[in-house]
Design goal:
Structural class: mainly alpha
Oligomer: single chain
Largest sheet: 2 strands, antiparallel
Number of helices: 23
Radius of gyration: 26 Å
Number of strands: 12
Helix content: 40-55%
Distance between the termini: 39 Å
Strand content: 5-15%
Shape: globular
Length: about 525
């Protein structure tokens, strides 16, 4: 993998006048400029609260509650497309309290599931308090914490017995910062700014919320207690065990790629009924499932080439016509099938992605190009001038999308940006607004040729999305972008200059693995940025 800090971008990206070039360069890797990486270097990390997804999965694993109460919480903050738990508002506090009350009410309806002992035994109260607080706080509860919870329990017990005491304890714990936040305290006495290993239990939580999007299990907490996570070998052993649990690992993987690719918008897609009678909400939901089954397979056992070039698909009768297949050959269950390699290649030509990036009444070359630039190549595109009104030209009889968009590229105020975007977006013109293949558009033969500009190793003319997908599969810039996206998701923050050595570690291991995606996740786990922290005041 070749790495460069910068490269000439020989084009003007302004829609009028001169504006900044797009940013987003590969990080320096094994063949790039020298870095001094003898000791760990990591930036200061902000304290994060649980995201809505993490909250819901945590109460599922802690209480067995699948009501997903966090769906009603305020939206999470956005960091380069990934959800992060930022500052809490007064609304958060109110809704946390309401959720805690409802969750506690349901949890105490089944004391046997909640309490790990006989409630009639004298020692059961303290056993329950220590066990529940330890699981909820993701580290051993201190004697002082258990003592305070005992006082809470006693108040409830006096007014309703064991059930009410347990109910007040659950409410209290679910509103504690130790539950709601990713608490990562450095050892006492360490110098501010020093780089130290992440504490054992905090590291266990980092691992579980990255790979499972939820709290550590008993086995992981035991590994933390025994100090087995302090070595890279021990940490990776646990990571491999967790990834081998496909059911739970799927939650972490899907959390990553749903955010990376913005898949949460697919079920709500709406298309023009007259132009696209095949499309419906059921079709949209089935398309998302199809894509996720494909991505599950690739992230479990595949590599970057399969991600971008595989002609494997998951199809049922609902969406078979969009894939150009006969619905009569399928049932309601999804079948793994081999698709026409001249029409389908991995992620970028999947109908779910094409429909997501299409308008209600036509294809959308601009947003398809933006997706490739920003999500797959990690480039930041400059915004158009504020005084420029941008509207997609309406479909017109006898004109293809390419012809209708020609004004954008010929208009001097738009030509710069559209030279960058059109050359990528027009490559997808064989796919209509719902992702179905077409040979004609507006009565004209589809022209899916394009030319890529402004990348590090993908520039040049090409013909069609299949060829563009093959370029992505072989591009160092695209590989590094995937590595960077996983890094951002795992650390819940954007990479900074202090992460340069860690990113080099990740990219090197990714390359050495043959660009296997599960090995990429392990490479992030083994990185200094994941295992170390900077001491803050």
């Amino acid at each position: 993998m070749r790495h460069r800090l910068a490269a000439p971008l020989a084009f003007v990206l302004a829609c009028s006048g001169e504006i900044d070039e797009p940013t987003g360069t590969p990080t320096p890797g094994p063949n790039g400029p020298p870095l001094t990486c003898d000791v760990p270097t990591v930036p200061s990390g902000p304290i994060r609260r649980l995201t809505r997804d993490q909250y819901d999965l945590t109460v599922r694993d802690l209480l067995g509650d699948t009501t997903t109460p966090a769906r009603a919480f305020p939206a999470d903050d956005d960091s380069e497309g990934f959800y992060v738990g930022g500052q809490a508002s007064s609304l958060h506090v109110e809704q946390w309290a309401a959720a805690a009350e409802a969750l506690a009410e349901r949890a105490t309806m089944d004391l046997e599931a909640l309490v790990p002992c006989d409630v009639a035994a004298a020692s059961c109260v303290d056993t329950f308090l220590e066990d529940f607080a330890t699981r909820a706080y993701r580290r051993p509860a201190t004697a002082a914490e258990v003592g305070r919870l005992r006082a809470v329990f006693d108040v409830g017990f006096e007014n309703g017995g064991f059930v009410n005491g347990a109910k007040l304890v659950v409410q209290t714990v679910l509103q504690s910062p130790n539950f709601l936040y990713h608490v990562e305290l450095a050892p006492e006495g360490e110098t501010e700014g020093a780089i130290v290993p992440v504490e054992d239990y905090a590291l266990a939580s980092r691992l579980s919320y990255f790979l499972w999007a939820s709290m550590p299990d008993a086995t992981l907490l035991e590994a933390a207690a025994e100090g087995r996570l302090r070595t890279e070998e021990g940490l990776l052993e646990e990571a491999r065990r967790m990834l081998a649990d496909e059911d739970r690992a799927r939650f972490g993987t899907r959390s990553f790629y749903r955010q990376w690719l913005k898949l949460q918008g697919i079920p709500n897609l709406q298309k023009n009924d007259e132009l696209y009678p095949l499309f419906s909400r059921d079709v949209a939901v089935a398309l998302q499932t199809s894509l996720e089954l494909f991505l599950d397979e690739v992230f479990q056992s595949g590599d970057i080439e399969q991600l971008y070039t595989s002609n494997v698909g998951y199809v049922n009768a609902t969406i078979a016509p969009i894939f150009g297949l006969d619905a009569a050959d399928f049932g309601t269950d999804f079948e793994r099938v081999t698709l026409d390699p001249a029409r389908r290649a991995g992620l970028v030509t999947h109908p779910a992605i094409m429909a997501l990036l299409g308008k209600s009444n036509q294809s959308d070359p601009i947003h398809r190009a933006v997706f490739v630039r920003q999500s797959l190549l990690c480039q930041h595109l400059p915004p158009p001038p504020a005084d420029l009104t941008i509207t997609a030209p309406d479909p017109a009889p006898g004109l293809s999308t390419r012809e209708r968009f020609a004004e954008h590229s010929s208009n001097p105020s738009c030509a710069g940006c559209h030279r960058l975007l059109d050359g990528v977006g027009f490559g997808f013109e064989h796919y209509d607004a719902i992702g179905a293949w077409r040979d004609e558009d507006g009565g004209r033969a589809v022209d899916a040729t394009g030319e890529v500009h402004g990348t590090f190793d993908m520039d040049g003319p090409y013909d069609g999305a299949i060829e563009l997908a093959q370029r992505l599969a072989g591009s160092d810039q695209a590989r590094e972008c995937v590595a960077k996206q996983v890094f951002r998701f795992a650390l819940q923050r954007v990479e900074l200059q202090a992460d340069a050595c860690s990113l080099r570690q990740v990219e090197t291991r990714f390359e050495e693995s043959g660009y296997r995606l599960q090995d990429l996740m392990l490479a992030v786990v083994a990185s200094d940025a994941f295992r170390f922290q900077r001491v803050q005041p």
